[in-house]
Sequence to fold (158 residues):
Amino acid sequence: MEIIKNKVANLAKRVADSQKVELFNIELSGRDKLLLRVTIDKEGGVTLDDCERFSRGLEAILDVEDPIPVSYTLEVSSPGLDRPLRNIKDFEKNLGKLARIFTSEKIDNRNLFIGRIFKINSESLKLLVNGDEIDIPFKNISKARLEVELKCQKSSFI
Fold:
């Protein structure tokens, strides 16, 4: 299954490059009927049209190359509002945003931090948590994702 996934990833990368989107993730799961889930991203966010265009492009190349020997369903989506943060580039793109970070080793007797991505260098990031700067080494991050922020406006009810 890993060989198939790698072949599909190479084909998907070609489509992503031609359409100026980033290949964010590929998952291949299932037994009798596989699910091929492809996640794309781009600066400013992914639209439904982007997903449709990418899906059509990838379907066309998969039909020709035929790397998946059984029937499958193709699903194309964006990473979503609560997208995972997987590498330094992801953190840099989301500087100033609210994130939830789990650490493999405790920092200040905690493994979970929710705060704003404040500063980034090659070794660690600083998270602003309740006014305090917490230094978190990248090697200590086990899982990280953006937090959804809802901004409410005051309204008057009659």
Notes: The first helix runs from residue 2 to 19. The chain has a mean pLDDT of 92. The chain is about 25% helix and 40% strand. The longest strand covers residues 110-120.
